[in-house]
């Protein structure tokens, strides 16, 4: 009788322990955070399910690396997890994440590209989401697409014509297909208000709009600044736009905007240096949205010749005279 009781006791303990282990295992398969945000995960060629589990765990997408490993073995997907770029959420269960990593069909991602980004900025963001590889857009010549999009005529790059908007792209898209999507959107939304201009005026207004996009925040201020820059051009004054200097610097230095400009930057010989050169820069310095394009087409007359942006609230401060402008430079920028 004592032997039977001991056996039942051991069996009960074993079942209880097994239940705890199974319960703990199932708990670890649940979402980390039901309200979690999306994260971009890159799986490289040759990374096995154990390495992938470690990546997911460190990213906060799964509760347990060991549970992930066991789960993928149990469902027969441990050797079927694919390389690539994945948009995953901590609100997904381990099972949902494993299924996403083993999918073979094309996947869409939604990417928002805001006004004022450069082609390189856009390319970097698209690469982050796995749409293209960084450097892909730079391999395509304007001449390859000018037949489809004649408004690109005389352009040396796609800068200024990649219309800012929210897009859906397939992972690992063809770079030309990506460019066509941008240019078609420009053709549909921007071209109707620009199409009446001559080719020279068309390009000039896109350059102006690209400057306004980087220099000014509010639409009404954009129109006033457009008027100031047009007035300087008519008088043969240098535009002296800091954003054009920054554009040259950022072509060489990815962290340029966080470090700002130095005196030496204003002395760099470049067709975009609007302090050394009179007239418009050689091309657009960003990809403008509709507000800045409309402002470039409708500059507002004012008594002002100078402006600067308050770094605290980005409000544009206008000045009539150089003395007043210098006072504002000291007041708002602490520049003597």
Keywords:
single chain, elongated, two-stranded antiparallel sheet, 336 residues, Dna Ligase, domain 1, 6 strands, 46% helix, mainly alpha
Radius of gyration, whole Å: 28 Å
One letter per element, helices H and strands E, the order comes to: HEHHEHEHEHHHHHHHEEH
Number of helices: 13
Domains, number? 3
Q: Which shape, going by the Cα principal axes?
A: elongated
Task: Characterize the biggest β-sheet.
Answer: 2 strands, antiparallel
Strand content: 5-15%
Helix content: 40-55%
Average per-residue pLDDT, rounded, comes to: 86
Structural class by SSE content: mainly alpha
Question: Can you describe this structure in just a few lines?
Answer:
This protein has 13 helices and six strands. It has 336 residues and is mainly α. The longest helix is centred in the N-terminal third of the chain and has 27 residues, at 2-28.
In words, what does this structure look like?
The chain has 336 residues and is mainly alpha-helical. It has three domains: 29-101, 2-Layer Sandwich (Dna Ligase, domain 1); 114-189, no CATH class; 198-302, no CATH class. 46% of the residues lie in helices and 10% in strands. It contains 13 helices and six strands. It has helices at residues 2-28, 49-58, 65-74, 94-101, 119-128, 175-189, 191-194, 199-215, 219-235, 242-252, 256-259, 290-297, 322-333; strands at residues 38-43, 84-89, 108-113, 165-170, 306-309, 316-319. Strands 1-2 form a two-stranded antiparallel sheet. Strands 3-4 form a two-stranded antiparallel ribbon. A two-stranded antiparallel sheet has the order 5-6. The longest helix has 27 residues, at 2-28. The termini are far apart. The model has no long low-confidence stretch (mean pLDDT 86).
């Amino acid at each position: 009788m004592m032997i039977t009781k001991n056996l039942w006791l051991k069996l009960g303990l074993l079942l209880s322990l097994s239940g705890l282990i199974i319960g703990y295992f199932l708990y670890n398969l649940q979402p980390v955070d039901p309200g979690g945000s999306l994260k971009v995960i890159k799986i490289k060629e040759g990374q096995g399910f154990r390495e992938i589990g470690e990546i997911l765990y460190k990213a906060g997408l799964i509760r347990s690396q060991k549970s992930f490993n066991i789960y993928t073995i149990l469902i027969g997907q441990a050797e079927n997890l694919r390389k690539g770029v994945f948009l995953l959420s901590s609100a997904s269960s381990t099972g949902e994440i494993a299924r996403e990593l083993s999918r073979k069909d094309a996947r869409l991602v939604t990417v928002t590209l805001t006004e004022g980004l450069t082609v390189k900025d856009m390319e970097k963001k698209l690469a982050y989401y796995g749409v293209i590889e960084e450097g892909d857009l730079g391999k395509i010549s304007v001449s390859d697409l000018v037949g489809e999009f004649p408004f690109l005529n005389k352009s040396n790059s796609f800068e200024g014509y990649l219309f800012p908007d929210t897009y859906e792209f397939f992972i690992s898209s063809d770079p030309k297909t990506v460019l066509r999507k941008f240019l078609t959107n420009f053709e549909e939304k921007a071209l109707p208000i620009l199409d009446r201009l001559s080719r020279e005026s068309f390009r000039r207004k896109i350059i102006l709009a690209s400057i306004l996009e980087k220099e000014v925040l509010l639409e009404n201020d954009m129109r006033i600044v457009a008027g100031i820059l047009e007035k300087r051009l008519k008088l043969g004054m240098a535009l002296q736009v800091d954003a054009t200097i920054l554009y040259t610097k950022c072509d060489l230095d990815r962290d340029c905007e966080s470090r700002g400009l130095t005196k030496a930057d204003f002395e760099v010989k470049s067709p975009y240096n609007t302090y050394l050169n009179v007239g418009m820069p050689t091309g657009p310095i960003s990809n403008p949205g509709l507000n800045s394009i409309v402002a470039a087409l409708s500059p507002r007359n004012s008594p002002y010749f100078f402006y600067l942006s308050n770094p605290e609230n980005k409000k544009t401060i206008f000045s009539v005279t150089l003395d007043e402008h210098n006072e504002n430079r000291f007041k708002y920028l602490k520049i003597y």
